[in-house]
Known about the structure:
globular; two-stranded antiparallel ribbon
Amino acid sequence: MTDLVVRRLLVHMEHPIPRHWCAGDPLRTAFFNALSMSFPSGEQFFIDSVRDGWKALPPDKHEQLHTEVQGFIGQEATHRRLHELYNQHLTAQGLVNEWEPHAKERMKLLEGTDVRHALAVTAANEHFTAIFAAWMLAHADVLGHEDERLRTLWLWHSAEESEHRTIAFDVYKALGGNEEWRLRWFRRISIEFLKEAFRQTLRNLKRDGTLWRWATWRSAGAFFLGRQGLLRQSFGPWRDYLRSDFHPRQHDDAASRAWLAANQARFVPVRG
């Protein structure tokens, strides 16, 4: 069992963010901005899915997972709030969030269905974010130092995503969630997540006026497909989810624990 601490990040999001805040790189900036655009509604969906799943558990498992579920909800709610503030700056820059309305429409399709469907979707997305978090913590240099607030925000978010990576999966399993649904939703989410992430990134680049620059595409090749690239480094951990004996705890969270231990001055524990 994991005691999840809800933390208040000591960053001030009132001041505008630089147009190319991520190491001055338009491609990386557009990609991270795209991800942030998906987070507020996505994290609310994850909160609702885990809360509803937990409420449906039998009494013994209900009590057993209570602390972890409450920690998960608290952490995700804090992520949602800060990314809402972040996204307000993106709107002010003229970027248009087209990912969120698409996601909301798909979420509506699960209303009234077995709670395990939403949990399987949440567990799949949490695996994606945990993979990204592990890569992010190992490659923090890609963020640069143009805006220390956003650098801190992304690394803190990554550390907590790694920290609570097992919760949705555990609730799904505790409710008797089967392998067929788990894998079917994972494959669907894999396609949808990548499609929407790249689509929103391209839209951000187009509005930024940097879509057709050679430097943008050169940066994309290195960032996604280079030796230490995000997609290249993430394929193995992504594939692990397809194993019948997989559990998120099998992936190491040492980088998350190390970052949280080394950066305690950057946040205040709210509860744990």
